[in-house]
Specification:
The complex is a heterodimer.
Chain A (H helix, E strand, L loop, with lengths): L1 H15 L8 H11 L6 H11 L4 H44 L3 H30 L2 H7 L8 H13 L3 H4 L3 H15 L3
Chain B lengths: L2 H14 L7 H12 L5 H13 L4 H39 L8 H29 L3 H16 L4 H19 L5
Helix pairs in contact in B: 1-2, 1-4, 2-3, 3-4
Classes of the chains: A mainly alpha, B mainly alpha.
């Protein structure tokens, strides 16, 4: 039955893809070729839509493919398949962690992991910033330093940085800043 | 505090996370730490890192860990479903409609703006994380080395975490004994 197959295929992906949505891409390509449910070229579109739609990217892939193959029941089968291994493994590991969290060795391990994880997140942020604020394409076309930077985006970034850090406005829900970003993006015609 | 409140919080988190795993952090901070005060930011950060080492979608794994900590196994399941639901609904709606929505220039502009906003919000989060994770000179060195390595090479986060965990154990338990 197709629903079972959807569940199973996404269960396997949920089990083997370490690192979130983008890590699923190679598995999804394989899936496309194996089942013919969708084309490998569809994946780029799904990712683009996934950027607009809130929520984890991995789930977006499951929803699109599941829905395309078998409508709403298909969507549910695919998402449950994707999430099930996570539920089983994480809940089991969590019980284990709970018992040992206060353990000296575990605490020492986390002491080392925290600064390193901050470094990893900082690296990801630098990449995000580069994407949003630097314009390699423009620079390589004209070779003028001026064109290297997306000035409008930088201006917006500075404004948001300021307002998200001053006392009364700091407490606003992050969604407010996302909305400001969206609105400003439209007004400024950011690319 | 009820299962319903847990579900509602994760529905909000799922509805506001645009893009990859890191984008979830500012929203998590706001909802779980500031508003609900269910956990400390250190705990949330630890769960986020653990989730990177486990298979599956990072945002879902983190939600399961948080949900389980707050309300047991059922809490973990509810958190996972809550964080996925907005995505499921919206994605299904967009898929069912027309694919041309992405081509509209307005959508492109709004997205570009949202990307800028997300970058700034995550920078704020990093500033916060720097304060809680760098507590002494050893952790500062770990941070600096990890940053340099991560910028130059692209190893899997799992490798970083394993090396960092070992380093932490060595620095705190082995070398710590010798320090005066």
């Amino acid at each position: 039955m197709i629903l079972l197959q959807l569940f199973w295929e996404f269960f396997k992906i949920g089990l083997f893809a370490f690192g979130g949505g983008l890590a699923m891409l190679p598995f999804l390509s394989n899936l496309a070729l194996k089942t013919g449910w969708f084309l490998p070229s569809d994946l780029g579109n799904i990712q683009a839509i996934g950027e607009i739609v809130p929520g984890p990217l991995g789930v977006d892939f499951a929803v699109y493919i599941g829905y395309k193959v078998a409508g709403i029941p298909g969507l549910i089968a695919a998402v449950f398949g994707l999430v099930a291994p996570s539920l089983i493994i994480v809940l089991t590991v969590a019980s284990f962690i709970k018992k040992y969290y206060k353990n000296r060795v575990v605490q020492a391990a986390f002491y080392g992991v925290r600064p390193v994880s901050t470094a990893l997140i900082a690296t990801a942020v630098l990449l995000l910033l580069k994407e949003a604020l630097v314009n390699w394409a423009g620079y390589s076309a004209t070779n003028q330093i001026v064109d290297l930077f997306k000035w409008k985006a930088i201006a917006l970034a500075i404004v948001i940085a300021v307002i998200s850090n001053i006392k009364p406005l700091k407490k606003l829900h992050p969604a407010v800043f996302l909305l400001v970003g969206a609105g400003a993006g439209i007004l400024l015609k950011l690319g | 505090m009820s299962y319903l409140q847990l579900l509602w919080s994760f529905l909000k988190i799922g509805a506001l996370t645009f893009g990859g795993g890191y984008a979830m952090l500012p929203i998590l901070q706001d909802e779980i730490i500031k508003r609900r005060q269910w956990l400390s930011d250190i705990e949330v950060m630890d769960y986020f890192m653990m989730s990177q080492c486990l298979p599956g979608v990072i945002a879902v794994g983190t939600s399961i860990l948080i949900g389980k900590k707050i309300k047991g196994n059922l809490g973990g399941i509810i958190a996972a479903l809550g964080v996925s639901l907005p995505s499921m609904v919206m994605m299904a709606a967009v898929t069912a409609l027309v694919e041309t929505t992405i081509d509209l220039p307005v959508v492109g502009y709004a997205l570009a703006g949202i990307r800028v906003a997300v970058s700034v919000l995550v920078v704020n989060t990093v500033a916060q994380l720097l304060k809680t994770s760098i507590v002494d000179i050893k952790t500062f060195i770990l941070f600096a080395v990890a940053l340099a390595v991560a910028l130059i090479f692209s190893f899997s986060p799992v490798i970083f975490v394993i090396v960092a965990a070992v380093a932490g154990i060595v620095l705190k338990l082995v070398a710590g004994g010798k320090a005066s």
